[in-house]
Amino acid sequence: MDSAVAFLTSKIPFLASLPFWVVAFLVMLVVALVILGFALTYEGIATYIERKVAADIQVRIGPNRVGPNGWFQFIADGVKLLMKEDLIPAKADKFLFVLAPYLVFVGSFAAFVVVPFGISLIAADLNIGVYYVMAVTSLVVIGILLAGWGSNNKWALLGGMRAAAQIVSYEVPVGMALLPAVILAGSLSLQEIIRSQGGYLGIFGWNIFHNPFTFFSFFLYFTAALAETNRTPFDIPEAESELVAGYHVEYSGIRFAFFFMAEYGDMFVVCALAAALYLGGWQVPFVDVSGLSPLLANLLSLGVFLAKVIALILVMMWVRWTLPRLRVDQLMRMSWKYLVPLTFVNVLGVSVWVLAFDGKGIPALVMSLLGR
Amino acid sequence: MGLKQYLKNIWEAVYTIALGMKITARYGIDPSEEITQQYPEEKRQPAERFRGFLHNDVPRCIACTMCAKTCPVDCIEIEFVTGEDKKRKLTRFDINIGRCMYCGLCVEVCPTKCLTHTDGYEKASLSRGELILHFVEPASAEEEEAQEKEAEPEPAPAGAAPAENPSGKEPEGTGGEN
To answer: Which CATH number among 3.30.70.3270, 3.30.990.10, 3.40.50.40, 3.40.50.300 corresponds to the domain B54-141?
Structure first.
């Protein structure tokens, strides 16, 4: 932030005459708008891709009426949602009902701030990045709980309660599954973690190939994170066949769109975190990005990062259209009896590994045996 | 639950999920398996004996009114005049296709096989009146009626058959008065 402001004031003399906080505020505003624009565009395209993936898996064609091959379907959907009547149930708690969608959306959008898009493309490289994402995405629970309570509807209330139970339970394995990467990098900053995965090893420098424990950690994290985004097979908060639509059953129009966008935003954040912590983030295999010119380096790293994230999102969609929904007790059993113990074993294993092999992974050890 | 069972459970979960995802991936990747038909652009040809909309081949029709009599839902209305050579001539042959239940009895009973099922099935309309199919031009029938009225200045009493023979002959019969 300070460096950006200093850079701008040195380039544009007019800004130097303004007080520091005005320039800082302007920079924040522009960065926030850029990220918001990116998030909304991504969410629109993701809904289109999700429908196409679903159609492919179900041997259908999918949306193909609006625009070439249906590419403008999401714009039509957005316009439709904006034009819809904004219904608030008569006996709803109006304040909470109106507040809830914004809390949910803010919770998922605020996590975009620390997503490392490229070598220097990050809104705020917080030194507690991983922790910040964990904390901010937990805000979503409060929004969902408020939506369930404020709707004054039994299905909504049941959905909200289930969501709270589910997200709070899965917060534990998510946090524990992220720890191995943090231990290896010795930092909570996402950029630091990504930089620690570079080097001459290429894709074998990624944390997922560091040792067997990190390999399993990645899959454990992905499973637990899938549950945190409330998507099938973990979508019991909105279980259509049991709760109609769960916590957002009373919402319509643009308020519903906020919940919808928050879900896709959550997907992006979760996949970005998985890519950054275990799949090398924006590290281009076998190319030292920091040695290139800034523009080329940023574009290359942005492309590689987005490719990794989109691949993970496609896997999420694939899982969604493959697996049926879990029961509530099955869900809890999976979290507390399987994921939590396994992630603890992984954290212990990685810690011992780091002590035993001085922080070197299997690929590095093999290379040192070969004499490098 | 022993450790063995615990590990077996995990293995089973991973294995079965992988199996399911393999199947969906196969369907997802192969685009030739899409079975959707783009309806308005491409249509499926109905079966050979498909009972679609009714069609009457008017020149072959002898106006025997068998179809109107056998129709369980009374959707066929027939009016005719008897000519000099005792041949009946249709003045009206209307089928209310909105009321028709496609039972096929009228087609079975038709002696000249002039009433047939076509393979048509698309009849979306803005009003129910558009669902009545007129096989004899209603305009010509009205003209005839107008000529009849001119020839006979005295208005027909209510309830009488609308088509009266201008030559003074008794109308032989009007079918399908529902």
So the answer is: 3.30.70.3270
